[in-house]
Model the fold of this input.
Amino acid sequence: MRHRPFTSAVVAAAVTIGAAVGSAAKSPAPPPVTAAEQQAIRDASARGALLYAYDQAAWHGTDEMMAKLPDARSKVGGWIVDGPADAPEAVFFDKDRAAPHTVFVANFRDGKLVSSRVAGPAEPVLDAARKRLIAARTTAVEALKAKGFQRCSAQAMNTVVLPPVGPEGNTYAYVLTPQPDMDTIPFGGHYRIAVAPDGTPGEIRAFTNSCIAMPGKPPAGAKSAALFITHLLDPVPTEIHVFSSLVAQVPVMVATKDGRIWAVDGPRIAPIGKIGR
Done:
């Protein structure tokens, strides 16, 4: 039941942040960011921040639950996380698929556990919004299995489900490769599945085309570091780059297919240069 953090990208190498920024500073100025790209950046920033907050809440919430609920394995059927990135709530529910009830709740504020409770026998059935998230996860996993996908780890995949933005918005379920250990970062095997309001699966997209892993620590002797990533699938960085920066706690420099270099520092994304003359 332990939920472990993870991160992803396309191609990465650890470099000192000073060298990365210095190189970008000598490159030509990047072209202006279009309106469509600005919207994609806003979406990536918001989704990446939620991915990180929800993953952390699920991970640490599981640890808290296992400590306070010794018979959790026989009672808990799954979990869901919702709420804003700075105050997520992890809800663990029972094995009643038709009418799931809350078993345990953990609340977080600014990345720290602030409260938790074991639910009582009179706990009401989960509301429609949370049942929609549970259903979306099931739908997404089944759709991904039916399509077939590249696995980059023998470990169980991690899942994060983001609530829809508005009643007519898609619910986005992420199926991601976990870290094999805290010092290794996997860069492939990460997927986003859109689930429509009517519960049907939509677009399934991969964030990488191959399996790559690298040490997650800065080079020996480096005081501050960044990840340098070449990303050819999108014109701007994605939520996975935002998530990766938050997990690694260092900026991620992203070179996109048009030669632009972007600095992703947590949820902040900005072009800083361009490769070439």
Observations:
- Confidence is low (pLDDT under 50) at residues 1-21.
- The longest strand covers residues 102-109.
- The chain has five helices and 15 strands.
